[in-house]
Amino acid sequence: MRFFDELPPMEFLRSEKMSFMQLIIPVESAQRAISYLGELGLVQFKDLNDDKSPFQRTFVNQVKRCGEMSRKLRFLKDQINKSNLTILARPALEPDTNLEELEVLLGEHEAELLEMHTNSEKLQQTYNELLEFKLVLLKAGVFLVSDQNHAAPSERELDEHVYTPEEDGGTLSLLEQEIQPDFSNKAGLRFISGIICKSKALIFERMLFRATRGNMFFHQAQAGELVMDPVSGEMVENTVFVVFFSGDQAKIKIHKICDSFGANCYPVPEDMTKQRQIIREVLSRLTELETTLNAGIHHRNKALSSIGCQLWRWTMMVKKEKAVYDTLNKLNFDVTKKCLVGEGWCPAFAKPQIKDALERATIDSNSQLGIIFHVMNATESPPTYFRTNRFTQAFQEIVDAYGVARYQEANPSVYSVVTFPFLFAVMFGDWGHGICLLFAALVLILYERKLGSQKLGSFMELAFGGRYVILLMALFSIYCGLIYNEFFSIPYHIFGQSAYRCRDPSCSDAHTTGLIKFREPYKFGVDPSWRGNRSELPFLNSLKMKMSILLGIAQMNLGIMLSYFDAKYHGNSLDIRYQFVPQIIFLNSLFGYLALLIVVKWCTGSQADLYHVMIYMFLSPTESLGDNQLFWGQKTLQILLLLMAIIAVPWMLFPKPFILRKLNMEVMSSQDRERGNKQRKEKGKEKVGGNEQRNDKGKEKVGRFQGRTYGILHTSETDLDVELDSTREHHNEFNFSEVFVHQMIHSIEFILGAVSNTASYLRLWALSLAHSELSTVLYEKILLLSFGYNNIIIRLVGVAIFAFATAFILLMMETLSAFLHALRLHWVEFMGKFYHGDGYKFTPFSFAALADDEE
């Protein structure tokens, strides 16, 4: 192990070293200090008021104020979006506006827009009513003219169409006269005209017929123009109707039905001269209203455009301010109420930057007191923080989806950058499909700045976030495809001529008897002559199955080696001696030996049956191997490896729990001795005079002031010792049965997992074979079959179907399948050997995160 101890440390293998800090900030510089720390984005504050509700916090009024401003900004944004205007993501810089001025400005803008919206709604409602009135006049007038020959004039005059001037004697226009209500009760044939939504017209007519028992006559016609629905705000098709009836009861029923169906009724005079005069007045009013509405919309859009230029800056300003006060609510006041005390985590490398930011905050706020920053010891586990970039971010997210690493735990994403895309490529190996994936990844990378500034769909956002993962998967797929010698399932003589040839010039028995080898093996990858040969499937199955086992054993050994580095880094010698050593022995005594047999068989060309060797290694270890012997001393080696595997099982199970029990008993006995010594010292201190007690109390206050809690603590030294002893006993509780059961479960899981995990890696063989065979079926049964016809249309259709099936089945479904299986192999088979994943992520207070959320 000395070789591993001398290796240089890997910076990316461990999370950043964290420091638990305490800040003592004067009130006058608190807001500016937190703002500067937010711009730095390297401090995670601890909530010291988690026992208080949000409404009991110190700065609740400031948070409410920012929340109200956020509501106004959302209202302005909604109005801009409804007007189909563009919001600038990065507006031109203008003079800075403080929060008070912004609050007043937002209030003015909101009040102005609400007033404009109210006036616009009133004008739009009047415009819609006049437009409907115009349509009713134009269509209903035709009905009335056509019915003049079927009824007497005296019977057609309706009571709702007889209008009188106002009581003050004022002169009204014809339009105003027609709108006036009438309470006449004349008898005879009457009519009601109006307009209704086209979708309700049929049901409306049936309801009228049933309500009047058929004593009505219903005329309808298409309005010809779209009218805005006052409820939904959409343009809808309407129908103009005229209902002829007789009697006051029928009139009341018809009006009720019109109200229930949302039909608008408008009076239409029978006199054609009056109709023309009213139409002219309506058209004149419509023109005036349209001009007024357009002017209002122009003024509104101009106001919204000026707001949109600064909306992003205002939103970020309010968000930052609210985030600052939310963070300040996590801080506590000291006993003097003049300083705020905060605690949190920061990376060790960031301490100089934090101190510099705090000094600038003190100078800029003109504070007479400086901000105190000091590092303390913490009892809780620090958060996990890995510095990533655009390339490694996606791989880190894949690992974090399983679980965030413990503090300073080995990071699997360092190795997953290579192993994940490689295992994917083993299942997806086809260099034609790999080129397609490479093209897609290059497009995402070349346009990453443009795509990163846009709002993408869920699928595109997922693909864009993993663009570098797709790039590596494509490159490794091309590499494995060259090894498999498959280009859309077609083999090519890329690296020279084949090593095989037919037995006779006609090659009639190539697919039955087979080929013969006549030169050196093919230089790289699978020989193209295996394609179509009768031994193709057995050869490729054997090759890919053995390759899967070798890759699986290598990756599992890597995981166990990482458990050694973890235990070595944290100084846990028990895990090295009684966990790492027996695990590495057990795995390699059985499955490492299998990997050795595979390599020896490939190198020697032996015909030994490895299934028989591995089975009878357990059933009859002393039996002669016969033809299955691959090398001298194999039988003795098998017996030795089997004994080592058997010994490794109790080695994993028993020593560690008993050693932990012994160490715990030693610690408890030492604690008991220390507690007895303290009690004897306390009895001696009780005899000391009152002056010395007062001095001790003064020293105690100063000492505790410099400790973790800021301020004067009214706690005696005796109480403090008792408290520390109880805390120490709480943390040192040891349950031997629980530890033993946990170790037993872990040992059984590893032993059974060594078998199941090795078998699990056979999915590499299965999916690679499935991908190859599916690609072959699409090529032979679609492309070649269509080209067998001497018809250009059939050939084009075959090419289109082949391209569609390749894109959606092989490049999408098979890609997702191989991705998920590679994910499973990393999460369970690889990371399960060393990775705990029960930490929590470092989430600093950062303004940059607010900007990313806004975008």
UniProtKB/TrEMBL annotation:
Residues 671-700 are annotated as: Disordered. Essential component of the vacuolar proton pump (V-ATPase), a multimeric enzyme that catalyzes the translocation of protons across the membranes. Required for assembly and activity of the V-ATPase. PANTHER family: V-TYPE PROTON ATPASE SUBUNIT A1, VACUOLAR PROTON ATPASES. Keywords: Hydrogen ion transport, Ion transport, Membrane, Transmembrane, Transmembrane helix, Transport. The keyword Flavoprotein does not apply. This is V-type proton ATPase subunit a. It is found in: Membrane. It holds the Pfam family V_ATPase_I. It comes from Platanthera guangdongensis. InterPro entries: V-ATPase_116kDa_su (IPR002490), V-type_ATPase_116kDa_su_euka (IPR026028). It is a multi-pass membrane protein. Belongs to the V-ATPase 116 kDa subunit family. The chain crosses the membrane at residues 422-447, 468-485, 547-565, 585-602, 636-654, 792-813.
